[in-house]
Amino acid sequence: MTNGIHEIENSEALFIIGSNATVAHPIIGNIMKKVVKFKGTKLVVVDPRRTELAEMADVFLQIRSGTDVALINGLMNIILEKGWVDQEFIDKRTNGYEDLLEVIKDYPPEKAAKICGVSVEELYKAAEIYATHEKAGIYYTLGITEHTTGTANVMNLANMALMTGHLGKESAGINPIRGQNNVQGACDMAALPNCYPGYQPVNNEEVWKYFTKIWDAELSKEIGLTIPKMFDGAHDGGVKAMYIMGEDPVLSDADANHVRSGLEKLDFMVVQDLFMTPTAELADVFLPAACYAEKDGTFTNTERRVQRVRKAVNPPGEARLDWKIICDIAKGLGAKGFDFKNEEEIFDGIRESSPAYRGMTYERIDKRGLQWPCPTEKHPGTPYLHKGVFPKGRADFKPARYQDPAELPCEEYPILLGTGRMLYHYNVMTRNSKSLNDIRPGELCQIHPKDAEKLGLEEYDEIRVVSRRGAINTKVTITDKVQPGMIWMTFHFKESPVNELTNSAFDPITDTAEYKVTAVRIEKREESDEDLVHPQYRAMNYDKLRDPTTEDVEHHKPYYKKEKTKTFG
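Above: the chain's sequence. Below: its structure in token form.
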């Protein structure tokens, strides 16, 4: 996020697109609800589904999924027409404005409205709210990025912020709300194929020399593989082994059957995780790890705030701290520099490798943490980015033209499937919480009343959902939160593994899958699937899920697959 969470309190307008914040990010979502309800903050919501915030919005644009680029181009066309641009900001701080104008002239509001399935009048209202309030922030999540045009979506939102001068000031900016508590920190630490810590490029000679020196190791100058390319490599033999830590791609990655078959072709796979996940069940070696409440260290949250994490309880069984597992493996492979005594020593290494963290110490982040960049120990941290100047001096406009999603409904697959999270679960790990699982023990596919009537469906009936890649069974709930011709499901439930359906088409820049647009067909099931738990049932005991409140420590012991022997090296 360019801006801080607390700055939402002083916003004049919120532009929320592709984000169901009260469900996926309830703390931030509740702040948004509060300022709209009690402070009169203007609210624009853009989403294919009617969310809780959409019900509160001054303008709700219920667009067709995947039409975000056309929508933003239409809004910028209106902003230009009405003279709401910040010309001084454009002249002083940007490049390429004329190139943007060449594109957005082709998206008059009538054309954009037709593509997106919204009214011209509502487009004008939304453009006015965003452009005419100085403290107007854009907030988005995976509803923007999980498309084949995800990069173009993000760039176009940046275009609109630059055009109106809504960057480099408090309570404005462009704010991607991170999907997990430490996703920002993981990226900062170089959990990316093209960067060293601090987003320093792998293929830069000076950067390479610096890290070769401080780490005292020979390092590659080659950019690594993205996740989809890893699985493709597993299929074609280019990737022989994987070490998967804190991920369950069999359930969470698109085109899950392709993912599973790739993992099964590996010569060797290690999974390090809290529970024996569906992915871990395929591993040659499983290493049980400690959870967040069982370790010390730091997390970096969505507003770039680096915060201390403190151990509350001991890990169960033989579960160990992640960093100790990694250090032991590294030393076993003959690597140097892994003789850390504690978490603070590791953090000091982070400070050395990342300029944005250099001014932070454990003492300075003890209470509230600090927001990076924080380059010196006297620096107060940075509440919001780009004040006065951009990192490269001036920001470049990056125009984008609308492209259809990779897969659209057709005669054979006439329904559009979207996916996301629900309030009660987070990815798949929360299924191991009995209290949360009792609240929502199974999937409920959202379907519009008109589509339910056509199929003869009633509440909680079972259906079979079929795409070009797979088929799953689920129960339904009938609601007008989704549009006619669209259904919506979560990816939390292994009994209804929705990612066996989702599209394996990817954004050409980031290789992010198009989870939000999949063409499917629906078949009513006459016989009940015994694996599906009726949503009205509570306190159901899944045979295939362990109850972490009663299980013994056997679940937290290292596991080695015995039925096959493989050579790695």
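The longest helix spans residues 150-164.
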